[in-house]
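User: My instructor asked us to take a sequence, write out its structure as tokens, and then describe one feature of it. I'm not sure where to start. Here is the sequence I was given:
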Amino acid sequence: MMIPIAGTAVLTAAQMRAAEETAIVAGTGVATLMQRAGAGVADAVRRLAGVNEMLVLCGPGNNGGDGYIAAARLHAAGRPVRVAAAEAPRTAAAIAARALWTGAVEPLATAAPAPVVVDALFGTGLARALDAGPAAALSRLVRQASLAIAVDVPSGLAADDGAPLGDVPAFHVTLALSAVKPAHLLQPAASRCGAVRVIPIGVATDSDAHVLSRPVLAAPATDAHKFTRGMVAVVRGRMAGAAQLAAQAAMHAGAGYVELLGPTIPGAPHALVRRRCDDAALGDERIGALLIGPGLGRDDEARALLDRALATDCPLVIDGDALHLVTPEQLFARRWPVILTPHAGEFAALFGDREDDKLSDARAAATRSDSTLVFKGPDTVIAAPDGRAILAPAASSWLSTAGSGDVLAGAIAAMWASGLDPLEAAAAGVWLHGEAARRLAGAFIADDLAKALGGARA
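Assistant: Let's start with the prediction itself. The structure tokens for your sequence are:
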């Protein structure tokens, strides 16, 4: 069984080992877990490979044991399959699994290519780059295959931080055993994994981190009106277009009432309400989310606007320039909730240099600032102050265009104003943003992206 990863648990290597140990203590032996893993891999490979010849690459540990079992089951099913290995198995379970394979074991270094290659060399326990010989053989065989499948994680990737430990080839499919690992979602490792599917092996995978999934966003109720759908206010700064873009994104994402606080912008949609940014506007109790930062500027006037926004009791989304002006201490001291949407440069400006993997850094920053954090980029991690986290699969690379972050901030503000809690709102906004990009063919601009939110929302 191959399970799509949306909404599934994300476990680090240590968490996965602990989950397996719990299963073993409860009476499920290592051999049983390996049999389940090998059977699941064999079933998936059989479906994906068709009648093509398969080459299974087996390592010396338990990941290799999974490979031997998969190969034996594929052979028993009448499929053309060969096995290659760099060295003999070392663990007791892997040695027992090797005994189930009755065919030849070719040397990895000289193994002939096959249309389908299955990498079961090393799993989540790898802590260093592959030796030059196995690395070169793996790259050669993957490059020559029409379909390359990795078991658990591609050999040579660090499971937790998304970093390749050496030169790791790109696979078409990765079969994550029991649960998704951070490397399946964090770049640059995720780009080597291809399509990721989970193979369940009967191990409990409870986690406070999950993969982003499609939100449940109902249409407005029959008795809805503009304010029950959510009111978003966007503070205009020095670059008026950025604030207007964020406001339009909030409108297309489903907010019922959106106002721009600041001087009027020519050409703004007629449905966008213009209002002076004064105490009355900022104190409007109907505001479901106040957004500040897109195009704000970083001068004294911008700082004054930010201070006024921080003093309100509105749910506050802080983006762009405002992330260079605020401090974690100010955010922690604020009595009302905040969502932050930094890219890497803004994260560094607010929290300092990165210290760990992106998931750990995002969680630490969310706790430090007592804010929900959307750490965006080629990979996106959403973290709540209580340690919960959501990791988003890779979205369209065409999102690397000016203004796409303003659109994301507006979408998140609309979701928050609709009544979702901060983590749910951030996740829904990220999903809508990615879905809108998917619906656009490519080479789009942020204005197109904002409009496409409507179709994604519907």
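For the description part of your assignment, you could build on this observation: The chain has a mean pLDDT of 95. Try explaining in your own words what that tells you about the chain.
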